[in-house]
Design brief:
- The chain has 127 residues and is mainly beta.
- 9% of the residues lie in helices and 43% in strands.
- It has a 6-stranded antiparallel beta barrel.
- The C terminus is likely disordered.
């Protein structure tokens, strides 16, 4: 099942041009629901992601500690409209201040899991 964003965006040329872009900046907020928010200078709107799996998401982006959201990150999203107010998420990445960009979806499929543990011998942290 692919991930879909249910969002009501203004029906105008600016939005039409925006949706054709790749890697649209957004804010991703995950609690019980997974929300994607677009802010000024983009058309301001918030939508809900359908079809996501928390375990698969956590394997690709480190959850935060405390607060309302397990994930609260700047993101980049590429969308493909499938019907009015419904968009297939083609690509999605979260930004993490320690690990950088964490791909969540690539070409509509979950990206390979991230490497976040300290036991990787290739790490040279503290050396």
């Amino acid at each position: 099942m692919s991930l879909q964003l249910n969002i009501s965006l203004p029906k105008n040329l600016v939005t039409a041009d925006l949706i054709r872009q790749k890697n649209i900046p957004c804010l991703c907020k995950v609690a019980k629901e997974f929300e994607i928010e677009f802010m000024d200078p983009l058309p301001e709107a918030t939508g809900v992601v359908q079809g996501w799996d928390r375990r698969l998401l956590d394997e690709r982006a480190v959850a935060g500690a405390g607060g309302l959201y397990t994930h609260y990150a700047f993101g980049l999203v590429t969308l493909d409209q499938v019907q009015p107010d419904v968009y297939r998420i083609v690509d999605l990445a979260f930004f993490n201040r320690i690990f950088g960009w964490c791909p969540i979806l690539e070409n509509g499929e979950y990206a390979p899991p991230g490497k976040f543990s300290d036991d990787d011998e290739e790490d040279d942290f503290g050396r």
